[in-house]
Structure formats: C-alpha cells, structure tokens
From TrEMBL:
It comes from Mycobacterium sp. (strain MCS). InterPro entries: ClpP/crotonase-like_dom_sf, Enoyl-CoA_hydra/iso. GO terms for molecular function: isomerase activity. This is Enoyl-CoA hydratase/isomerase. It comes from the Bacteria. Pfam families: ECH_1 (PF00378).
Length: 298
C-alpha cells in the first residue's frame, strides 16, 4: 500500500513547537526513499519557520522504525531500474553493471548527507521513540539533539550480523554507545533497552508508554522557553566539540567502509535488489515490516 503522506507535519503551542510524524505504521515506519524526501522537506519547513523553536520527530504505530525499507513494492520501484538497465562499464574487456557506483551515490544522498544536514538543523530537535528503533531507525534519532524514549523502547543495529556490513551508513555507534559497547552490539546484533540507553547517555528521558506523547511536548516546552540564539549557541558549541574530537571525519570514514561492503556484495550478487544485498539474507524484520526481496522475485 502506497502512502500519500509518509510524513506529516503539525505545530503546537502557537507555532513554537513543530512535530513531524513518520506515518507508515503498517510497515513499522520502514524508510522508503519517498519517506526520506518528505522528512527532509518537513525538517526544512520547520527550519524556515521563525516561530518554531523546537522540532519533535515522532512515529505513528507500535514501533519507531524498522530501518530501511528493502522489500515493499513501492520501495523496490523507487530503487529501479532493474539490473539489466543499470549503467555499465568495461573492465578487462568485459562489461558489467555499475551497481556499486549507483548504490554509493544514492546512499550518500539519502542516508549520509541527509542525516548530517538534520544533525546541524538550525532548530533544537527531539526524537520521541517508542518500541523498536532498528538499524536505520538509529540514524534518524541520532541526528536529533535529544532523545526521549518510552519505557518499552529498544535500540539495535543488525546490519553487521545480517548483511556483513560494519553498521548503518551514519556510523555514530562509538559516539552513542561507547567503543566497546558499540563492538558488542554490532558483533552480536543484540538490542539495548531504554534503561541501558539512558545509562549510556544516549537517551535523555524515559517516560511510560501511555504518557510518551504528552511528556515529550512538556519537555519540548521547557527548551522552547529558552531564547532561540541561546539554544543554538549551545547546540553549535557541543556539536563543534564533537567535531573537534573527530566525529564528522569518523562518520565519513564509516560511510566509505559501509560502501565497500556493498561493492563486495554487488560484485558477487549482481541480480540482487540494488542495495548490494547477499542472496541468502534471511527475513530479519520480525516486527512485520516489508520482507527483504530479490528484484527477480514475483
């Protein structure tokens, strides 16, 4: 089922708070290209509105996000054309599809540059997380200045154990989890709950699931009461400190290593869906999000 509005936008408190909703609950808010384009437009709308001081990123349904949409019909169509129509190049006298190159450009735009831009948005941003935030779901919340979670929230990145990659494209794991915890979670695919995420400093506040929406707005109101320039000076100062410690360069390096994984799979599995997926990947979307699918499947 295609969504006319995969992202919705509203304002609260006389326009001082903007709330952006991921609106694909039937796919556990799996991220299609269309969703990411609409999300970027929504963030841009909030940034351009001088009345808005705080932006809440929330999600409809049981779970915040099951990650990249790799299997729904519309997501596969968005990544078209099929393998036979890919750009090609010649090497050692042979012609082969330039799958890895296409993947690299698409992921640089949709997953890396988008997320970096949202991290530096000229507003204070709060991610409101319930249920599961899996793999690319982490990218969305990590781009926000603050993260609040319901008491049933869980966080994980299964890309390494399922797909042979080092982690998702926005490689903030060592900064958010700490180096050793990042290695543990990526090597095992295990999740952490809201309490552990709070102890690690990734989550700012934990609220009961039934109160999450109201408590997040209350939290946003406290921040919206601060003068806009003061809030932005805090944001810029902290982000600059992280960058001085190598955050942005580490992100860039992590992205390139991720793409090497795609290049490896593309070289050996040219008939897979155009994300460099191995042909024997199991369906890890136990939450009911779209099934991983080969492009050649009916």
């Amino acid at each position: 089922m295609a969504d006319a509005e995969q992202v919705t936008y509203e304002t609260l408190d006389d326009g001082r708070i903007a709330r952006i909703w991921l609106n694909r609950p039937h796919t556990q808010n799996a991220q299609s290209r269309t969703l990411l384009v609409q999300l970027d437009e929504a963030f841009g709308r909030a940034e351009a509105d001088d009345q808005v001081r705080v932006v809440i990123l929330a999600a409809r349904g049981k779970n915040f996000s099951a990650g990249h949409d790799l299997g729904s019909e519309e997501a596969i169509a968005e990544r078209g054309p099929g393998p036979a129509q890919h750009p090609t190049f010649r090497i050692n006298g042979a012609t082969r599809p330039a799958i890895a190159e296409k993947i690299y450009l698409q992921e640089w735009h949709y997953f890396f540059e988008n997320t970096r831009r949202w991290r530096d948005l000229r507003k204070i941003t709060i991610a409101q997380v319930q249920g599961n935030a899996i793999s690319a779901g982490l990218m969305l919340i990590w781009a926000c200045d603050l993260i609040v979670a319901s008491d049933d929230a869980k966080f994980s990145d299964v890309v390494a154990v399922r797909l042979g990659m080092p982690g998702v494209e926005y490689y903030a794991h060592p900064w958010e989890f700490g180096p050793r915890k990042a290695k543990e979670l990526l090597l095992t695919g295990d999740s952490i709950d809201a309490d552990e995420a709070h102890r690690l400093g990734m989550v700012s506040k934990i609220f009961p699931r039934a109160e999450l929406e109201d408590k997040t707005v209350e939290f946003a109101r406290r921040i919206a009461a601060l003068p806009t320039m003061a809030a932005l000076l805090v944001k810029d100062s902290v982000n600059a400190a992280a960058d001085a410690m190598g955050f942005t360069e580490a992100l860039r390096h992590g992205f390139h290593i991720h793409e090497l994984g795609h290049a490896h799979w593309a070289a050996h599995n040219e008939n897979r869906v155009a994300v460099g997926m191995p042909p024997d990947v199991p369906d890890w979307r136990e939450l009911g999000a779209p099934k991983l699918a080969r492009r050649d499947e009916p």
